[in-house]
Amino acid sequence: MRVQLTSIHVRRNGNPVLQDLNLETRENEYVVILGTNGSGKSTTLRAIAGLQPIHSGTIHFDQLEMTHRSPRSRSISMVFQDDALYPHLKVSAAIKKSLPADFSFIERKNLFDEIISKFQLKELVDRYPDQLSGGEARRTAIARAMAKSSQVRLLDEPLTALAPTLRPELLENIQNWHRCKSGTTIHVTHDAEEAMQVADRIAVLSQGKIIQFATPIEIYKQPSHLDAATALGNPLINLIDYDPRNQIAATNQPIMAPQLTIPPTWLDSGWDKTRKLIVGVRPQHWVLSSPDTEAEAFKPDGLSLRATVHRVWNGFEKHHALAIWNKQLIRMTIMQGEQKTGDQEYGEPPLSVQPGQVISLYSNISNLHFFDPVTGVRLSTPQ
Fold first, then answer.
1. Whole-structure pTM value
2. Which tens digit of pLDDT belongs to each residue from 291-318?
3. What's the CATH number of domain 238-371, 2.40.50.140, 3.30.450.20, 3.40.710.10, 2.40.50.840?
4. Taking a C-beta distance cutoff of 8 angstroms, is the pair 36, 189 a contact?
């Protein structure tokens, strides 16, 4: 089953919620719609389900148009943010009510047993919704949706109210269920790590528009827009304003304007070295050094700046630090025991940094992402 949304527009109180939204899934694909609160994620899901009227555009399941069909006729199952369990039905009855009517008694029993086992509901089947914890109610809502065996499965923030310890296993169960059953799953979340764990492809939604639809690794390595760049990655990508007019020799200054060195081959290919940019740098792609040595502070073909360390803390496998440059926080991540970057490795322990210390930061040109400061669109670089 493929789901196709074409030029979808939705307005609410005269304000645009979805704007020319286009999305086409592949056969039996697991798609995650990722976006911040208010970006239009749930509205998109409700439009697919037939619960949200659209002002223009079309919705197709395979070749069959669903734009004006009722929710009941769309062969979907949906997990709502608020669980939407019937208060008068026990867990067992809620799940059995969703089992396919055309299954035999044995098929229904086997599917019921499989579902309550997979979603850890065996001890809860005789409870009513008001006797369930938030996490138990959430698992019941997901199990009920999976019991329907629909060709299109819609999950609206399915991990809401779940304890962190339960999330990885439940995500794995949802993904395994998807793999075992034919059909398309569309999963909405604001959590990038959740999206990366399960998605075949991620649709990054911003202000009612899909700005990139690609695999998680493609979005992470080649974000097409500033909003896509900030959607994935923890800690967040650093976004640094660069103005070539501020290129100065600042060896002895405590805070240095970004120094960007462009390869000559880029200039030969027509790269405009006078344009303003927003430069993206992932936290793990910084090379740290002391500003005492000019050679360490200024390296060719890349971005260099100086910043003052604000805070340092250790994770289990990584060092983390925040520095301040021009009133902006700069995020850094360094592997413990060795300094790893995108282009080199140092066997010696990483530079010891302390709050208040001035450090030099450098990132190789191959690790940088360039964006237009007005449109936010990624700028292509010469190969």
1. 0.88
2. 665 545 456 789 988 889 998 887 666 7
3. 2.40.50.140
4. no
